[in-house]
Specification:
575 residues; alpha/beta; TIM Barrel; 3 domains; 8-stranded parallel beta barrel
């Protein structure tokens, strides 16, 4: 039987995901780079991705507010008119700092906040969402600020899909932080515009399977929408484990509105971390990660996922957690263990660390410093947190004497990305630019989704399977132009000339097939897009280095024909 006739819609990087998400934030791609704390996702990374039509969240967690203020000023000047996204991390031991960060964002009119590590809603978060909310003449509620929540648990997701808690709204109104009209509008709005389902990611993670977590929360959104219809408009994205075109394509095929990458951006040129860290990340495999205690929630037993290749941080941090669990104070730690801590981990007497720790918290959180003076167990926790906090700073700064103590937040996506990038333009850290990677991942993901749609809709009836052909497979039915055959290199050369002319904005008569691609200002992103189109056109799997190894239209066309003539059917991309 013949395949069922279907209408094939062209899938491109720009059409993947939710149009509503792209419109909401003024984006070209349904692609977001999540915040990496301590400014690793800094100004350069945010600027590069926003210019490329992606969303990026500045990694404000762990930074003093004057540093965050400086970042706001820089990005406002560099990106006039573009909405900015800054991270707000939950700080249960210091709610005053969380409130101060929100006040800063409101004062500076930061349009979007990415809320992360929240275990429950807080007054500061409700204030950010509700400030400026209003009801229009048609009775529709509108928020002035956008909020993207990064979550992994159903109970937390549910809170973000519903309105702000009534008690918090009334308390904020009572203190004069919200007006009655803002409270009235907030009652009609979900807390978040979008919810990112965080699976097995770097940093804070519950190490869930995205294939299980996302459908569960999509069902939860539908359930809540039955009783609170605005919840249906909450976007549902996916983060964690996304480092290859295949994984991103799988996420979009599942129905996500947008994707969020994390670990892979830390290895990019624009990331504000040391070259030493970027080299370690570029050599990581999928299994080179481990769980370790989180500095910001150490006493609660919360863990983060980190890189273990080339670092002893995870092992040493877990030893500190075991000591904290079984001893009530530093004085109760056996003498031999204290000596080991001083010689192998802290590299100085613990009494020095205590003094430094107290001085730090006296400035940042005086109440916590006073509690540490009164409670030996609190002091022990803060001393151990000193190592956890310093280890990430050593990594960012590339402290040579502390290489074995580098804390590098990293998920398995990093190793998967490295396997995909091997031998290609992104193989080396100095070649990894965030915008080029985003474009390449999304373009190739679109190709995978298109191929999946084609296979799914063109399958013959099971009762009469088509015989397996031994002939070379024809070009994909969704190829952008007429199929190139193994004997028609002139047609292929003309097609390449047309594509370059289109990119250069000139007539095809102005294209010389003997000139280099570089002379036509073909950058890495456009080169990868061209290769993706060629893969579709020829039904061949092509190396990302082809354009560089055969740098003219004439040479590349000749090489492609040779490959098409020589390649057996099993090496061709299924059409």
């Amino acid at each position: 039987m013949t395949p069922v006739a279907t209408h094939h819609v062209a899938v491109t990087a720009e059409t993947l995901g939710s149009a509503a998400f792209r419109q909401r934030y003024g984006l070209r791609l349904s692609y977001m780079a999540g915040a990496m704390a301590n400014g690793i996702a800094g100004e350069a990374l945010v600027e590069a991705l926003l210019r490329a039509g992606c969303l990026a969240s500045f990694g404000a967690a762990g930074l003093p507010l004057p540093r965050v203020q400086a970042a706001i000023s820089h990005l406002r000047g560099a990106l006039p008119g573009k909405p900015l996204c800054f991270n707000l991390i939950h700080t249960p031991d210091n709610p005053a700092h969380e409130r101060a960060a929100v006040e800063l964002y409101l004062r500076e009119r930061i349009e979007i906040v990415e809320a992360s590590a929240f275990m429950a809603l807080t007054p500061a978060l409700v204030l950010y969402r509700a400030r400026g909310a209003h009801i229009d003449s048609h009775g529709q509620a509108h928020a002035q600020q956008r909020l993207i929540a990064k979550i992994s648990r159903r109970e937390v997701a549910q809170a973000f899909m519903r309105p702000a808690p009534e008690a918090m709204l009334l308390a904020l109104q009572s203190e004069g932080a919200l007006s009655a009209s803002e409270v009235a509008a907030a009652r009609l709005l979900p807390m978040a515009d979008d919810v990112t389902v965080e699976a097995d990611s770097g940093g804070h993670t519950d190490r869930q399977s995205l294939l299980c977590a996302w459908p569960s929360l999509a069902a939860l959104r539908a359930q809540i929408a039955h009783e609170f219809p605005p919840a249906a408009n909450v976007g549902l994205g996916a983060g964690g484990g996304l480092g290859t075109p295949e994984s991103i394509a799988a996420a979009f095929a599942m129905g996500v509105d947008y994707v969020v990458t994390g670990s892979i951006n830390q290895a990019c040129v624009e990331a504000s971390t040391s070259d030493a860290v970027k080299k370690l990340l570029a050599s990581a495999g999928p299994a080179d990660v481990s769980m370790a205690p989180a500095a910001d929630m150490f006493e609660l037993g919360v863990s983060v996922q980190v890189l273990k290749r080339g670092s002893m941080f995870a092992a040493r941090a877990n030893q500190l957690w075991e000591l904290y669990r079984y001893h009530p104070s530093l004085d109760a730690v056996p003498a031999n263990e204290r000596e080991r801590l001083e010689q192998q981990i802290f590299l100085q007497p613990l009494s020095h660390i205590e003094a430094e720790t107290l001085a730090f918290w006296q400035q940042r959180h005086p109440a916590l410093a006073e509690r540490a003076r009164q409670d030996p167990r609190t002091m022990m926790g803060l001393v151990f947190r000193w190592y956890l906090g310093q280890s990430s700073r050593w990594a960012i700064q590339g402290e040579v004497s502390r290489v074995l103590d580098y804390q590098v937040w990293c998920g398995q996506a990093m190793g998967a990305f490295n396997a995909w990038a091997a031998g290609g333009v992104f193989a080396q850290p100095q070649q990894r630019r965030a915008a080029d990677i985003a474009q390449a991942l999304m373009s190739q993901a679109a190709m995978h989704v298109q191929r999946f749609i084609t296979q799914l809709t063109a399958t013959p009836a099971l009762a009469s399977p088509a015989p397996r052909s031994k002939a070379p497979i024809a070009a994909s039915v969704f190829a952008p132009a007429a199929t190139a055959t193994a004997s028609d290199d002139i047609d292929l050369q003309e097609w390449l000339m047309e594509q370059i002319a289109k990119e250069a904005g000139v007539s095809i008569e102005d294209i010389d097939p003997r000139r280099t691609f570089e002379s036509y200002a073909l950058d890495s992103a456009h080169a990868l897009l061209l290769l993706s189109q060629l893969e579709q056109r020829l039904s061949l799997k092509l190396s990302p280095t082809l354009v560089w190894n055969y740098p003219t239209i004439e040479k590349l066309a000749a090489r492609l024909q040779q490959m098409a003539d020589e390649a057996p059917a099993r090496q061709r991309v299924p059409a």
